[in-house]
Amino acid sequence: MELHFVEEARRLRQEYLATAGRGAPLVLLEGDLGAGKTSFAKTLLSLEGIPPGEVQSPTFLKVLSHRLPAGGVALHMDAYRLEDAEDVAKIGLEAFEDVRLMIVEWPQVFEAWLAENPARASFLGLGARYRLRFEVAATEGGAATRRCVRLKV
Questions:
Q1: Shortest CA distance to 102 belongs to which of 136, 69, 77?
Q2: Burial class for 5, CB neighbours closer than 10 Å (0-12, 13-18, 19+)
Q3: Hey, which residues does 136 pair with through a beta bridge?
Q4: pLDDT digits (tens, 9 = 90+) for 69-89
Q5: What is the DSSP-derived secondary structure letter of residue 140?
Q6: d(CA 148, CA 146)
Q7: Distances from the Cα of 38 to the Cα of 18, 30, 43, 97, 125, angstroms
Q8: What angle do CA 96, 100, 105 make, to 5 degrees?
Q9: Is 3.30.720.120 the CATH number for 6-151?
Q10: Cβ contact 73:95 at 8 Å
Q11: Domain ranges in the chain?
Q12: pLDDT for 110-146, tens place per residue?
């Protein structure tokens, strides 16, 4: 299975590991359909020891948890179908314990929930935020190229 955005994922992982102990990193992935958000999540989780074949898009389940070999869990969330902060609350994120990493695709509604519920964000143990935007461009031959752009948070 081919992994994409390997160098970007490695750099991000090195950065958040350097801040270990300051809360679970929150990685926000933005981009159009098919831009590479789930591919990036698969690569980042594989660097955490999760076999790539076990990482799927959480589109219909909204959130998937992965037990990390080093301990704790990684949450992979897709907020595309969520309409408002109330929908996020219904997922029951508070039920997850020992969150070490949280990846959110389509994060706009999730961020609104965080802003309205800072105590819940604290309960999840979220630390530094990282925002990445995935873009697709067509080349002269019609082939699509994908790139990952790091945005300030």
A1: 77
A2: buried
A3: 146
A4: 999 999 999 888 888 888 888
A5: T
A6: 7
A7: 24, 10, 9, 23, 23
A8: 80
A9: no
A10: no
A11: 6-151
A12: 888 888 877 776 777 788 888 888 887 766 676 767 7
